[in-house]
Specification:
The complex is a heterodimer of chains A (83) and B (679). Chain A is α+β, with helices and mostly antiparallel strands and 83 residues long. Chain A has a single domain, classed as Ferrous iron transport protein A (FeoA) (SH3 type barrels, Roll). Chain A has two helices and six strands; from the N terminus they run ββαβββαβ. A six-stranded antiparallel beta sheet of chain A has the order 1-6-2-3-4-5. The longest helix of chain A is centred in the middle third of the chain and has 9 residues. Among the domains of chain B are: 171 residues, Rossmann fold; 85 residues, Helix Hairpins, CATH 1.10.287.1770. In chain B, strands 2-3-4-1-5-6-8 form a seven-stranded mixed beta sheet, with helices on both faces. The interface between A and B is large, with 34 and 39 residues. Strand 5 of chain A pairs antiparallel with strand 10 of chain B, so a sheet runs across the interface. The structure holds guanosine-5'-diphosphate (GDP) and magnesium ion. Guanosine-5'-diphosphate binds next to helix 3 and helix 6 of chain B. Chain A: It comes from Levilinea saccharolytica. Chain A: This is Fe2+ transport system protein A. Chain A: GO terms for molecular function: transition metal ion binding. Chain A: Pfam families: FeoA (PF04023). Chain A: InterPro entries: Fe-transptr_FeoA-like, FeoA-like, FeoA_core_dom, Transcriptional_repressor_C.
């Protein structure tokens, strides 16, 4: 899926310190089920803790820290939250 | 369950009830303190094995409390119960089919929002649940005020605040378990519901399956699982439902493919209500210790530096403590026992002496001298895991392991292979999926272990003089190159498309719990001794018999015959029968190849032997021999744990065949190149 509005973006494109609301989780039943069990659900809030140009991201979601691969983060669509 | 309240009120049955053991299952997400609680309750009264046919640890223990006997089963730590992984299927099947009397759900008071997700699934299963609200100390430290009574009322389940590391709350936990068994607590659990927009779908599915859901599944649970797209339940219900009913279910599922998210969101809504009721959290968004440490430990550059330093430390320790200990065990224990046995057997026939002293004691010696290194590795692994560092090592290595279609999680076990292939294979179980575990197990023997490096260090100087260091370095690089190549090829062929997504929790850093680590080391070592130990002993006796029979001297033995028989193959690599025999003997233990050459050339295992060999064989043959040695079939101990960890002879034989084929092919290639290059 591609971002449709200005404020929508891929999780991959959020910088460290930025917040977002999950819009969709991408595809693949197994991946979606693992993501939800770790706290990613549409409407849920997340904060990116670390996102260097390579290697997985670290994201805090529902109070837990989760490492997520760049491929997986590219499939997650979020709405950027300004603060 | 009702049957227990019946027996509890009847005095005649009370006696029987007291003797019958009560089955308790411990469930929880990873890092909630489940194992800490399990160890606290059972101590050394536990048995570690595997779940039938799986590479997942099964820990069971027993204890007596107030004269009542309990059996405790530590279910695998899982984030949910969706049957996506072996662990999830095990946990869920255990609760559904073994029907424990009570399930203790361990949750983290400092992070209820996430840790209640598993509970949301547990409460829908037909077993009474008691909630162990663990890590109360952490919650207090972070100024998170959790009110257990409020949570209990809001959940409709007994909630017991605990700090497992300080043994706080155990008495209360047992009181709650006993009350629950007796049906005395009088609570009614509140169950999570599917998100509002999908209630109608659930109703439709529920109606269609009503009366057709097989025991022991609760109907509402099965209906929810259908909406979640659970494969196991979907298949079963498709087979059981009359066509017309299945069609109705199918239509509904097709129309609502997003139902899974509605179910999950419903659970988080339920959690949200509970958390709002029971948790007061004044400080949010503070930068915790974990975040600060991760700025270094998970940094793409500094993370690698820290990892390298830690691994360097591990090996330094292994050689500082492990090697002398190994030697001490070898001379003081094995040497002495062999001495006594030799004295006791002076009048026994020669073959009995050989069998006992060389065959059996040789095997025992290998097992025993393996132990110090294994214990150190298990302890370090346990420590890194308990502190929370393991996830960071996996994190920083992930992008490199990606090349081989693997996860960062497989890095540490493989790296340990440099010390010894045995813990590498045993560590493979940290990988996420069966495919990743198998790939790690298959690659581990290609990491040159200390014993192989020892052979390299012994022979290289004699053959290559000043260039020895470069040759050794080149050969190690060659075998690592082969490893990467095999990984790349296998992940694109045998395990094609099986790389699961990289999503991993980064647990908070903890002060290590020595009791947990101690028990882990104890259990792993015991398991090695039990399983691998016996296999090694058998191998040892067999190799001894091959080397000693029929005449008693190696030169005319069956092993030598085997070497001569294989000589034509050996000649591709410039190896005569003696070098071939040395390779065959290395199957028993890698350093054996030197010992065998010592016997064959009638000289001691010192520099004399190395220069004798260098005098007889060309550098090309020497190079080929070292190449094959590095890549050859893993030693007996490794093969034994490959069998144990893969749970299959098929994969064990595959591993042996793979390493054999690779070592012969690369060896022949290196030999041809060396001869062509004029060596
Ligand atoms: N501070 C604190 N740490 C705990 C408590 N219970 C467990 N831990 C620590 O949390 C970590 C994970 O515990 P463990 O029992 O291995 O979790 P499991 O994955 O659920 O089996 C370990 O470092 C434990 O020492 C507790 O009540 N308080
Ligand atoms: Mg555990």
């Amino acid at each position: 899926m591609q971002p449709t509005t200005l404020n929508q973006t891929r999780l991959l494109d959020l910088q460290a310190g930025e917040r977002g609301l999950v819009i969709s989780l991408g595809s693949g039943k197994q991946l979606i089920s693992r993501l939800t069990a770790l706290g990613f659900t549409p409407g849920g809030e997340l904060v990116v803790n670390q996102n260097y140009a390579h290697g997985p991201l670290i994201v805090t979601v529902r109070g837990g820290r989760v490492a997520i691969g760049r491929g997986e983060a590219a499939a997650i669509l979020v709405e950027r939250r300004d603060e | 369950m009702s049957c227990h309240s019946d027996t509890a009120t009847s005095p005649a049955l009370d006696v029987e009830n007291a003797q019958r053991t009560t089955l308790i299952a411990l469930a929880g997400q990873p890092n909630m303190g489940k194992s800490t609680l399990f160890n606290l309750l059972t101590g050394l009264n536990q048995h570690v094995g595997n779940w039938a046919g799986k590479t997942v640890e099964r820990r069971e223990g027993s204890l007596t409390h107030d004269g009542q006997r309990f059996t405790l089963v530590d279910l695998p730590g899982t984030y949910s119960l969706t049957a996506n992984s072996a662990e999830e299927r095990i946990a869920r099947d255990f609760i559904l089919h073994e029907q424990p009397d009570v399930v203790i759900a361990v949750v983290n008071a400092a992070n209820l929002e996430r840790s209640l997700y598993l509970l949301a699934e547990l409460v829908s299963l037909p077993a009474p649940v008691v909630v162990a609200l663990n890590m109360m100390d952490v919650a207090r430290q972070e100024n998170i005020l959790v009110e257990p009574e409020v949570l209990e009322a809001a959940l409709g389940l007994p909630v017991i605040p605990m700090t497992a590391t300080r043994a706080e709350g155990v008495r209360e936990l047992f009181a709650a378990v006993q009350e629950t068994l007796a049906g005395r607590r009088g609570l009614v659990a509140r169950l999570p519901e599917i998100r509002e927009d999908h209630r109608e779908s659930l109703r439709v599915v529920l109606e269609a399956v009503q009366g057709y859901v097989p025991a022991p599944y609760p109907t509402a649970w099965a209906a929810t699982k259908l909406l979640e797209g659970d494969e196991e339940i979907t298949q079963q219900m498709r087979a059981l439902l009359p066509a017309e009913r299945w069609e109705r279910v199918h239509q509904e599922l097709m129309a609502h493919e997003d139902a899974f998210l509605a179910v999950a969101t419903g659970r988080y809504e339920w959690i949200g209500r509970l958390v709002r009721a029971a948790v007061v959290r004044p400080r949010v968004g503070q930068i915790g210790l974990t975040e600060r440490l991760d700025r270094w430990a998970a940094h793409p550059f500094w993370g690698l530096v820290i990892l390298a330093a830690i691994l360097g430390g591990v090996f330094w320790m292994t050689f500082q403590i492990g090697a002398p200990l190994q030697e001490w065990l070898d001379t003081q224990i094995i040497g002495r026992v062999s001495g006594w046995l030799a004295a006791a057997l002076v009048s026994a026939p020669l073959w009995v002496q050989g069998l006992v002293l060389d065959g059996v004691m040789g095997g025992v010696g290998t097992v025993v001298t393996f132990l110090p290194i294994l214990v150190i590795f298990f302890a370090v692994l346990g420590l890194l895991e308990d502190v929370g560092y393991m996830a960071r090592a996996a994190y920083v290595m992930d992008r490199f392991m990606h090349l081989m279609g693997m996860h960062g999680k497989s890095f540490l076990p493989l790296f340990l292979g440099f010390g010894c292939n045995v813990p590498a294979v045993m560590g493979a179980r940290v990988a996420d999926s069966r495919a990743a575990q198998l790939l790690t197990i298959l690659l581990a023997p290609l990491v040159p272990c200390t014993a192989r490096l020892g052979v390299l260090a012994f022979l290289a100087p004699a053959f290559f003089g000043a260039a020895a260091a470069w040759v050794s370095w080149g050969l190690v690089m060659l075998s690592l190159g082969v490893l990467v190549l095999v990984g790349v090829v296998m992940s694109r062929t045998v395990f094609r498309g099986q790389r699961s997504a990289f999503v991993m929790e980064m647990p908070l850093y903890h002060i290590p719990n020595l009791r947990t680590i101690g028990l882990l080391v104890w259990q792993r070592s015991l398991s090695f001794l039990e399983k691998a130990g016996t296999t090694i002993l058998v191998f040892s006796v067999v190799v001894w018999a091959l080397a000693a029979l029929p005449g008693g001297d190696l030169e005319n033995s069956w092993l030598a015959g085997l070497g001569r028989w294989f000589e034509p193959v050996g000649l591709w690599m410039g190896l005569d029968w003696r070098l071939t025999v040395a390779l065959l003997a290395s199957f028993f233990a890698k350093e054996n190849s030197i010992a065998t050459l010592g016997v064959l050339f009638g000289s001691a295992e010192d520099a004399g032997l190395a220069s004798t060999l260098a005098g007889i064989y060309s550098p090309a043959s020497g190079l080929a021999f070292l190449t094959v040695s590095l890549l050859f079939i893993p030693c007996a101990a490794t093969v034994a744990v490959i069998r144990q960890e893969s749970g299959s002879w098929h994969w064990t034989l595959f591993s042996v065949a793979l390493t054999l084929a690779i070592s012969l092919a690369v060896g022949a290639g290196v030999y041809a190149l060396a001869v062509w290059g004029g060596l």
